């Protein structure tokens, strides 16, 4: 029975069986199929049954038209699976004819049970019975089955193992080697190889296997003539007797190496042929004579199985190449993004240097000492920016193992503040230093931590530059339930960072400082801390300020580690907006503008 299924619209999910010879569709209650879509006309279309269970559609002058499979129509012969769009409603047409999808279920209604006489006793040669439990016995012990069944069970087993390998082995070389192993086990071939076509169309062996028992150092030659024939024809090839095959009697290498049987099939994937799978057997004269009596190892069902495995191998090769191409495209895109971001920043730095040089040139001409100093400071500042950029690029471009040594974090922080002091004074930002305890002997890479802290302190100074009473506080201490973390907190009373941007600022080339920032400082700092087994955390409230926390695992330098204080200093509740006049007891090295 044909039917309409509403797949989209206000009546979604409803089904209408097309029982009548003529079925009308519309909003009016007089229609056979009533839809509640206001964009459907009162009498929109009719469906007239044809012989064979299909229907002919005719639009009844609807206001918004009728579409079948996306095309506007006035009349159309419907086929199973067609979509009909009326207004905002989409109907799926399922025919009751051949291919209608419900035929198998509907045909069950035609089955009639009949009662008959007992089965007569036919002679044994006319009928044979098999116990029902033989089915499970065949799988438990295949040797009890006939040769035909055993061969097909072996083929099914190989295909199952091949599918398992494709789904579980991610490395392409390991996968091809495993598939080749399965082929050799099933066909009993002496040698096998998978040869792929590279980007230049050259044949490159990718996987090679010898059957156990075959000398692994024995020379083995793959016939280029056969391989090129298979690639050219695109068909699998089975040669059961190489010596008797007229097509390859001129191939000296086959006869010289006593190759007797060959299977060679193309690796045909979804889109192209990527190579071939080649297996063969080699036989001495005695073995050849014996084979003539008993038959060779390779059969046509072997060829079929090898083609099936070759198809799976080809799909795996295609997928691998697709992912490699995708990675390469992403790599090139990342390089392009990096070059664009760095070029923009370098251009801004060079403009600053050029402007400073112009001021110096003018000052020298006019003998203006004040202008000379101003121009030179501008040149120096942009030179420092270039140095900073280069160091950030080097730090970010490669993984490095921290060179650990005993470091006094308090002394390291004081050194960083000394470097930043001049910049803070120019920006009229107050630096406050709160020295903590328990961090005098911490194992870390002093150069890396110095660089990470310098990046973050400079960011904090720039965040509060130009704001009234701009302040930055640097504080050390020990945190964690068991005092396992050495921390450096850098707090400011700047504008703060919205929650949705707090993770983004740790991504490369994301900067909130416009043309003044490279977007590398914070990613580099976090990378350095994570290389130490720590991290850079952020706590921020918009309008109040931010606190960056550099956490280092507290690894003591002394052989006998000193215990952490029983009551370590409670961590500040960031954002720690410093008071205007910090307590002298806590400001052991403060710098005021």
CATH architecture of the largest domain: 2-Layer Sandwich
**Gyration radius from CA atoms, angstroms:** 40 Å
How far apart lie the N and C ends?
Answer: 89 Å
Q: Give the proportion of residues in helices.
A: 25-40%
| CATH fold-level name of the largest domain | Beta-Lactamase
Quickly count the helices.
Answer: 12
Taken from the alpha-carbon principal axes, the silhouette is extended
CATH homologous superfamily caption of the largest domain? GAF domain
What is the strand tally?
23
Low-confidence segments, ≥5 residues, pLDDT <50? 98-105, 557-593
Q: Given the helix and strand composition, which structural class is it?
A: alpha+beta
Main beta sheet strand tally, sense and closure:
6 strands, antiparallel
Strand content: 15-25%
Strand order in the sheet with the most strands: 2-1-11-10-7-8
- What is the CATH class name of the largest domain? Alpha Beta
What's the domain count? 3
Average residue pLDDT: 78
Topology:
Blueprint: E1 3-8, E2 15-17, E3 22-26, E4 33-34, E5 45-49, E6 55-59, E7 66-68, E8 71-73, E9 75-77, E10 83-86, E11 89-94, H1 103-107, H2 134-140, H3 147-168, H4 172-187, E12 191-197, E13 203-210, H5 224-233, E14 237-239, H6 252-256, E15 259-268, E16 273-282, H7 285-294, H8 300-366, H9 369-397, E17 405-407, H10 409-426, E18 430-434, E19 442-444, H11 446-464, E20 471-479, E21 485-492, H12 521-531, E22 535-541, E23 545-553
Parallel strand pairs: 3-4, 18-20
Antiparallel strand pairs: 1-2, 1-11, 3-5, 5-6, 6-9, 7-8, 7-10, 10-11, 12-13, 12-16, 14-15, 15-16, 17-19, 20-21, 21-23, 22-23
Helix pairs in contact: 3-4, 3-8, 4-8, 8-9, 9-12, 10-11, 11-12
């Amino acid at each position: 029975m044909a039917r309409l299924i509403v797949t989209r619209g206000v009546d979604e999910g409803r089904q209408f069986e097309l029982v009548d010879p003529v079925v009308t569709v519309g909003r009016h209650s007089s229609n056979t199929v009533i839809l509640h879509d206001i964009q459907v006309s009162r009498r929109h279309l009719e469906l007239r049954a044809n012989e064979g269970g299909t229907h002919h559609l005719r639009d009844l002058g609807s206001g918004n038209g009728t579409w079948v499979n996306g095309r506007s129509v006035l009349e159309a012969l419907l086929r199973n699976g067609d979509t009909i769009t009326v207004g905002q409603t989409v109907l799926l047409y399922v025919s009751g004819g051949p291919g209608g999808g419900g035929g198998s279920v509907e045909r069950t209604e035609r089955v009639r049970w009949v009662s008959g006489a007992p089965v007569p006793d036919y002679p044994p040669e006319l009928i044979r019975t098999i116990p029902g439990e033989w089915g499970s016995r065949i799988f438990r012990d295949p040797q009890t089955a006939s040769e035909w069944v055993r061969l097909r069970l072996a083929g099914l087993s190989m295909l199952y193992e091949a599918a398992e390998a494709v789904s579980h082995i991610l490395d392409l070389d390991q996968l091809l080697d495993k598939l080749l192993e399965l082929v050799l086990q099933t066909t009993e071939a002496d040698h096998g190889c998978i040869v792929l076509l590279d980007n230049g169309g050259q044949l490159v062996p990718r996987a090679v296997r010898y059957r156990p028992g075959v000398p692994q150092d024995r020379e083995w030659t793959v016939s280029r003539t056969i391989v090129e024939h298979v690639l050219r024809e695109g068909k699998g090839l089975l040669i059961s007797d190489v010596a008797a095959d007229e097509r390859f009697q001129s191939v000296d290498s086959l006869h010289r190496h006593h190759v007797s049987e060959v299977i060679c099939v193309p690796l045909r994937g979804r889109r192209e042929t990527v190579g071939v799978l080649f297996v063969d057997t080699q036989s001495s004269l005695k073995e050849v004579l014996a084979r003539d009596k008993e038959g060779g190892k390779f059969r046509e069902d072997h060829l079929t199985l090898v083609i099936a495995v070759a198809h799976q191998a080809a799909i795996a090769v295609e997928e691998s190449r697709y992912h490699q191409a995708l990675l390469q495209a992403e790599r090139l895109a990342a390089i392009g993004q990096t070059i664009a971001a760095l070029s923009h920043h370098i251009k801004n730095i060079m403009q600053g240097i050029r402007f400073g040089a112009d001021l110096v040139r003018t000052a020298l001409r006019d003998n203006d000492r004040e202008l000379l100093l101003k121009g030179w400071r501008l040149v120096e500042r942009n030179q420092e920016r270039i140095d900073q950029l280069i160091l950030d690029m080097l730090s970010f471009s490669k993984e490095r193992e921290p060179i650990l040594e005993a470091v006094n974090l308090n002394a390291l922080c004081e050194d960083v503040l000394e470097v930043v002091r001049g910049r803070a004074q120019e920006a009229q930002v107050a630096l406050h230093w709160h020295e903590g305890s328990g961090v005098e002997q911490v194992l870390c890479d002093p150069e890396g931590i110095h660089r990470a802290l310098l990046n973050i302190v400079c960011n904090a100074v720039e965040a509060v530059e130009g704001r009234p009473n701009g302040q930055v506080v640097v504080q050390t201490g020990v945190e964690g339930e068991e005092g396992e973390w050495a921390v450096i907190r850098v707090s400011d009373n700047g504008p703060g960072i919205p929650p949705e941007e707090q993770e983004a600022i740790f991504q490369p080339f994301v900067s909130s400082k416009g043309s003044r920032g490279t977007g590398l400082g914070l990613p580099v700092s976090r990378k350095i801390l994570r290389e130490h087994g720590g991290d850079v955390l952020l706590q921020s409230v918009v309008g109040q300020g931010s606190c960056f926390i550099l956490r280092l695992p507290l690894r003591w330098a002394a052989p006998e580690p000193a215990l952490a204080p029983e009551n370590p200093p409670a961590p500040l509740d960031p954002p720690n907006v410093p008071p205007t006049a910090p307590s002298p007891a806590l400001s052991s090295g403060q710098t005021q503008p």
